[in-house]
Design brief:
about 110 residues, about 0% strand
Length: about 110
């Protein structure tokens, strides 16, 4: 993904991103195979959300974006447990119109 995105970002922009990562919560899964099945079902929406962070012009996005490309472009780390250590109530935030409509539809 970094190679594809180079024309859209300066070297300084790329360096400032450092080691930032995105985290996506998925429904509960029993094992790694189940997690990968879930990921395969939702990879298109996640792929588009990530591409949109780099380039808003969908005409410049790579195509086709299949699960094989997804696994090649992104590092996948599975964490079976996520703990909320904050004392505040979790809140829902509205996503701006036009931003990753597929993510909102694909994820429960």
């Amino acid at each position: 993904m970094v190679d594809w995105s180079r024309p859209f970002w300066t070297r300084e922009d790329m360096e400032s991103l450092g080691d930032e990562k995105s985290l996506y919560l998925v429904p509960t899964y029993d094992d790694e195979a189940s997690a990968m099945t879930l990921l395969e079902q939702h990879h298109g929406a996640i792929f588009e959300a990530e591409l949109e962070l780099w380039c808003l012009d969908r005409a410049l996005w790579p195509s086709p974006r299949d699960f094989t490309m997804f696994r090649h472009w992104f590092q996948i780390n599975l964490f079976p447990l996520v703990e909320d250590l904050g004392s505040e109530v979790l809140q829902t935030y509205l996503i701006e119109p036009g931003f990753s409509d597929d993510v909102r539809q694909a994820l429960p």
